[in-house]
Amino acid sequence: ELKVEQNPLFLSMQEGKNYTIYCNYSTTSDRLYWYRQDPGKSLESLFVLLSNGAVKQEGRLMASLDTKARLSTLHITAAVHDLSATYFCAVVRVVSGGGADGLTFGKGTHLIIQP
Amino acid sequence: DAGVIQSPRHEVTEMGQEVTLRCKLISGHNSLFWYRQTMMRGLELLIYFNNNVPIDDSGMPEDRFSAKMPNASFSTLKIQPSEPRDSAVYFCASSHSRRDRGSGYTFGSGTRLTVV
Fold first, then answer.
1. B114 part of contact set with chain A, CB < 8 Å
2. Which of A13, B23, B30, B92 gives the lowest tally of CB atoms within 10 Å of its CB?
């Protein structure tokens, strides 16, 4: 059974600081996703990481993937209040023969950025 | 592209009543996923379809839950009879099944279900 663990689950930080959210998963996968969710809203796709060593950046957020360690990180640089949200990582199981498979989500990291 | 469209946005019903949630896929997508989100259990995959065929329904909690894809662009999730513990936000998501497309999963706005 594929398990996805995020840490921390709750994070309160000040504007201007840097921090990293970690995502570990238990079995082989070739795709990892990061999503953002604002209260009462849907999930917004942030990054899709498709290979070992993949790194993607968008603004103050940078995501990386190490498939050997089964670890992805989401790094926040010089945080601003607008980044307050819940961040989820999600992993797709490797399915033989192709075809889409469902995402298994971590519990999410509830991030609060205070002025 | 209108995105994944879910209806209703909010549903309040009495215990024992039948509830039907609806989802319209993004045009061109052929995979459909139903998720449930609660504070206690997080986001859980209930069932998914590829090309209208159910692939994995192991996440469906009980026989009270059923899902269908009557055509390539539309799906329903039915709960009958509903119970208070079914209260949650239900999301559907669509994707394309071709793995070489590296496609993402697009989520609908969700249906917030309250069973009283």
1. no
2. A13
The answer to whether residue B102 neighbours chain A at the CB level (below 8 Å) is yes
- Closest Cα in chain B to A93: B99
Q: Do the Cβ atoms of B45 and A104 come within 8 Å?
A: yes
Phi, psi of A108 (to 5 degrees): 95, 150
Q: How many CB atoms lie within 10 A of CB B116?
A: 10
Contact B110, B91 (CB under 8 A): yes
Note which residues in 96-115 of chain A have CB less than 8 A from chain B: 98-108
Closest CA to A111 of A11, A8, A17: A11
- Whole-angstrom Cα distance, residue A49 to residue A59? 17
Residue-by-residue pLDDT tens, chain A, 115 positions: 889 999 999 999 999 999 999 999 998 877 899 999 999 999 999 999 988 889 999 999 999 999 999 999 999 999 999 999 999 999 987 665 555 688 999 999 999 999 8
Measured in degrees and rounded to the nearest 5, phi and psi for residue B100 equal -70, -10
The answer to whether B91 and A96 are in contact (CB under 8 A) is no
Which residues fall within 8 angstroms of residue B104, CB to CB, at 6 or more apart?
A: A33, A45, A48, B95
